[in-house]
UniProtKB/TrEMBL annotation:
Lineage, broadest ranks: Bacteria, Pseudomonadati, Pseudomonadota, Gammaproteobacteria, Oceanospirillales
Pfam families assigned to the protein according to its UniProt record, in alphabetical order: Sulfatase
Listed Gene3D superfamilies: Alkaline Phosphatase, subunit A
Ranges annotated as spanning the membrane: 12-29, 35-52, 64-81, 110-130, 142-159
Species annotation: Vreelandella salicampi
Gene Ontology cellular-component annotations: plasma membrane
Listed name of the protein: Sulfatase-like hydrolase/transferase
Disordered, as annotated region: 520-553
Length: 553
């Protein structure tokens, strides 16, 4: 048995660098305590000493470039994204690349990205040194490169997405899509739609104390929906808003099998969404968000789907009394709610036609949130890291806003919807969240809505049809997009009928619904006849079950 000999000083640096990066990767992807990275690093260094990596006895210098350099870079990118956001959705990466990432608020992540890049350079140098100096490492390194490629979730995800070009059935979801059809009504109610950034219903668990208490109090006077899951392609802000307003996942344009890669000029122009439906009914619609409306195509989406006014950072910051009272992303929510309240007062006073206002908050944004000044005055000092402090702030600001509207008489004949745009990404309490059954927030308040709790196996796709129902515009068979109204229990949701895993699998195979979403953007569109949009769902595939046909699913 060979004696354990420590590597020469020149070999210690590359071996230790590889060990630390390996330990960090394992700890980050498994949510183990950060100190465990040193255990894995020590184990790697022990193996290096055991097999005498880089020692003079095995040195046969050859100036070669490792096969693993590119696979290592891809792994470094994946670890950075997973460590930053938790569960990585490749759709979010591709969509933001095409929709635009200007005016983003992730300055902290930019610093982290720079540090990750420096660390990756160190790992690449270490691999290159070992490959050039140890002939045994040089022999096994090509096999290691293959292992790194096939094990990388990024590569796996790209393979799944590109597989839609050869899938047997790329139109399974498209056949279940129902264009929204509603009829006009007398004296329609107004709508206030509040998106609370990352404030998922899971925060109401006892493990998080009273962080969610104000939303629980609001829920006591309205309809609380339990069981709202997050399926693939709905797990970031734009995707969450499109899911809840259009009834479809956001399947990005410009992936491997698409026909165009130009910057977006419109967002999901091929489907009618909540704004389209309400504007056709005479609603005056406004959107308010503290962040830039140019980021991730928010302005394109709202301007292209029936909203007359779209206000983001650039439109609102000049109106601030203190123009320095902004955060990395934009306005704090206390000032954003003030602007929103003023807009509602204006809309209410201008005419008798109904109005709708959408507000997107920022307080709960991962990783630590952006609590407003009013919360600091109410809750005391913030340590800069406690996400539950920010959750409590977001919940209180939303409740305070609704109560102020009520006190001013602005909730008469008005439906208020409180929704989390998506489940939170990686935050300091991530490990606890992951042990729980995670659900999105969805609360409805209105004069005609009897307080109750509705528990369904549903997703944010079902919010669109539910909102139409609450506003008195029930779609045919209570179906709109891929969702059904949760206020009506006669029709099963997609998740109730097929389960979350099956729907997510179908999303990775779907191409027809993606083409519908982006209908009109392809430069080759004029070469093909327009695809007729059915008045209602047609399930022509023989694999579709008969009971689904009978139920309209």
């Amino acid at each position: 048995m060979p004696r354990l000999t420590l590597p020469q000083p020149s070999a210690w640096i590359p071996i230790t660098a590889i060990g630390l990066s390996l330990g960090y990767t394992i700890a980050a992807l498994t949510s183990l305590p950060w100190w465990t990275l040193f255990l894995f690093a020590s184990a790697w260094v022990w193996l290096g000493a055991r097999f005498r990596l880089g020692q003079p006895r095995f040195r046969r210098y050859r100036k070669v470039w490792p096969w693993s350099l590119l696979p290592l870079c891809l792994w470094g990118l994946y670890v950075y994204l997973a460590d930053s956001f938790g569960k990585l959705d490749l759709g979010a990466v591709f969509f933001h690349l095409q929709a635009g990432m200007s005016d983003h608020g992730g300055s902290g992540r930019m610093v982290a990205a720079a540090l990750y890049t420096l660390c990756m350079l160190g790992v690449l140098i270490a691999f290159t040194w070992l490959t050039r100096n140890d002939w045994r490492w040089r022999r096994v390194e090509p096999l290691l490169a293959v292992i790194l490629i096939v094990s990388n979730p990024l590569i796996l995800g790209l393979g799944q997405r590109s597989a839609v070009v050869v899938t047997d059935d790329g139109g399974w979801l498209e056949r279940r899509y129902v264009p929204p059809r509603v009829q006009a009504q007398d004296d329609p109610p107004n709508l206030v739609l509040l998106y609370l950034e990352s404030i998922e219903r899971t925060y109401g668990a006892p493990a998080f104390g009273d962080a969610y208490a104000d939303l629980k109090a609001l829920g006591e006077r309205g309809v609380v929906f339990e069981g709202i899951r997050q399926i693939a392609n709905t797990g970031w802000t734009m995707a969450g808003m499109i899911a809840s307003q259009c009834g479809t996942p956001l399947m990005p344009a410009g992936l491997l099998h698409d026909r165009q890669f130009e910057p977006l000029s419109a967002v999901v122009p091929g489907v009618n969404c909540l704004g389209d439906v309400l504007s056709e009914q005479g609603y005056r619609l406004s959107y308010f968000g503290g962040a830039s409306a140019e980021f991730a195509g928010k302005g394109l989406f709202y301007n292209g789907h029936g909203f007359q006014h779209v206000y983001g950072l650039k439109e609102l910051q000049p109106q601030l009394d203190d123009k320095t009272y902004v955060n990395d992303w934009g306005l704090y929510d206390d000032t954003l709610y003030e602007f929103t309240l003023n807009e509602i007062e204006r809309l209410e006073a201008e005419s008798d036609s109904p109005w709708g206002v959408v507000n997107l908050s920022i307080t709960g944004h991962a990783p630590n949130g952006y609590p407003a000044r009013r919360c600091l005055e109410r809750q005391g000092e913030w340590d800069g890291e406690d996400i539950l402090y920010s959750v409590k702030c977001s919940a209180w600001l939303a409740r305070n806003f609704v109560e102020r509207l009520d006190a001013k008489g602005l909730l008469d004949n008005t439906v208020v919807a409180i929704v989390s745009d998506h489940l939170t990404m990686r935050v300091p309490v991530w490990d606890t969240l992951e042990t729980l059954q995670r659900e999105n927030t969805f609360i409805l308040l209105g004069d005609s809505l009897e307080p109750q709790r509705i528990s369904r196996n549903a997703s944010t796709l079902d919010i669109f049809s539910t909102l139409l129902d609450a506003l008195g515009y029930p779609a045919k068979n209570h179906q709109a997009g891929l969702g059904v109204s949760l206020l009506n229990d006669t029709t099963s949701t997609l998740l109730e009928r097929h389960g979350e895993e099956a729907i997510n699998r179908r999303l990775h195979e779907e191409s027809a619904l993606q083409q519908r979403l982006w209908d009109g953007l392809s430069p080759h569109q004029d070469k093909t006849p327009p695809r007729p949009k059915p008045a209602e769902q047609v399930l022509e595939n023989p694999n579709d079950s008969a009971d689904e046909i009978n139920l309209g699913l």
